[in-house]
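Holo prediction — adenosine-5'-triphosphate.
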Amino acid sequence: MDVLKLEHVSHSFGEVQALDDLSLSIAAGELVCLLGPSGCGKTTALRIAAGLEHLQHGRVLLDGRPVADAKRDMPPEQRSVGLVFQDYALFPHLTVLENVTFGLRKQPARKREARAREVLDQVGMADYAEAHPHMLSGGQQQRVAVARALAPRPRVMLLDEPFSGLDAALRNQIRDETLHVLKESGAATLMVTHDPEEAMFMADRVILMRAGRIVQAGPPAQLYAAPTDKFVASFFGDINRLRGIVRGGRAATPFGDVDAQGLADGTEVEILIRPEALRLQPLGGEAKPGHHSARVMAARLLGRSSMVHLSLDNWGSTDDGGQDVHLHARIPGRFLPPENELLEIHLDRSQTFVFPAEGAR
Ligand code: ATP
């Protein structure tokens, strides 16, 4: 049963259409990330779910009951939602314990403190109950903000860029911890982020948006492996791009043909190749006929993998225009071939996508 549901929600700010017929639903215990570039409407969707933004069109349902539609717009405090924002929004004059207890003011006084201490313990902040927010680091404040939101046991948790104020190392740790407490809580969670890596780390399902509309939704692995358009394919990390023309249902690359995925012959296409789809092997000296080779421009160790920048000089037949192709390949582990070395390239076609080029008919 879906806990949170948005049905055909549209929303405008004057001339700007922030949301255009957005529908989504989230089950209990499910973590869904709203992902997309700046201005695509993520925050507006979250604010409408929370009741912080007045609904204009569509419906919001909680546990199957409308909380906002043409007739009603239930205020945020009457919806069973927990909110966490980027700036934590803790009350500076209250202690950590008082901040968490504040969210429990509808419960009997004697139960409040026990519940607040329990949830502070869950986020590892039990020892800081008497501290004031200004005495805490950003990561600790973020933990308290999560505890405060979770304390009343909301059916829905709404988080807006909750980790963007933290530095990189701490961010990874807090993401990990937050994922655990959210999963433990069983709440239906909607989290806004513009960071694809964060969405892939956190989400059971990702809803990728552009200009107020959903472009593609599904488990992150599905969006990564089977993007439905160029925007989705290139949103998750950098990607190699080649241009080509469809002939006989296939598009040529310097490493053999790939299936043109049903596009008509003559269509100008862009061929997108994930860096990890290129496999490299030493060729030993000169290029051999029938082998696909490339020259190393630079190789860099990125930690757990290496990035090899490659050049293919003047590839393609003359009627394709010929292109000087620069590619980058991501190789697991340490692989640092010297500059100018010739390498043999193999292409993993399952990580190669063909879409019509911009303006192609
Ligand atoms: P970001 O990641 O930058 O926060 P977002 O995807 O969350 O972006 P929204 O904040 O929902 O996007 O904004 C969607 C559109 O609506 C943008 O064009 C934005 O400028 C506009 N907008 C949002 N809030 C208001 C407002 N209160 N008044 C006017 N325009 C607004």
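READOUT: The pocket of adenosine-5'-triphosphate is lined by residues 13, 16, 18, 36, 38-44, 194 (CB under 6 Å).
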